[in-house]
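QA checklist item 7 of 12: single-chain prediction sanity check.
[x] sequence parsed
[x] length recorded as 290
[x] structure emitted
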Amino acid sequence: MARELRPVVILMLLASALFVAAGILDGVYPGGTAWSPNIAAFSYLFALINTFVAVLVARGSERSLTLRMGLSIFFVIERPASAFLLGTKTAPSIAIHLATALVELVILVSAIRVWRLGHSVASGEVDQLLALDSAPASAPATEPEEAPPPPQVKLPARSAWLIGGTTLLLAVVLVADGVIAGFVPGGRAWGTSGDSSGWLVYVFALVALVVATRAVQGVRFALRLLTFLALLFFVERAFSPFALHIVDPIALGLHAVAAFIALAVALASANALRGTRSKHEGDVPRLEAA
């Protein structure tokens, strides 16, 4: 398993380097054309998040590997979109963005393959199956096989309503932010950079609602993805006023409210995930044969 996982970790570190390169090519460095707060600086944030998750995956965390699948899906969409929609970029920058998307696609396919392979191995802890520094394990003693956790479980009504309600409230605040900012028919111009990119809140709201419709049904992957997206929205709402130089008090208030609600969504979905874990599982889930 370590042999299968090593290329995934290497590709993740390569992706981090590409994120940093994208930030440099976009001019986000001291004295650069975009050194002032700019949405292109998120490339550095993505590099930090990616490197941190790579370390967790290398240590044998199945949950981190699953989280990395969600990150890959996001980056496969975000990198081409930011290359062509968010500001004017040079040809080298566009090439780096597209190369990163391609690497992320390979990471996604490889991570899914490793995850499925891990679930096909009988009786083994995650840190033994996935850790890069693990020694070859001796033949395990025969013990009763247990079915892996189902991909979908029945959430308690309270958890489902909490996740659905907070996500809906987040979507309402995001849409209100777009309306207040003037992104309505006949309003201000819609663009791809700076203040004119505020219409993206409508995309954020739509994505959150789509994922939440699956999360409230107890789909584990959707719950994990919603947790990640909510944390991403929390960071974006908290720091975008500084990047976009927003001074309007109403807009600042909506950003703050959305950040707190996004954090509540993340906590609700993460708590639901913990509640769906089987009682026999420890702090690290087991990968066992179906």
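[x] summary fact logged: Confidence is low (pLDDT under 50) at residues 122-127, 133-139, 278-290.
[ ] second reviewer sign-off
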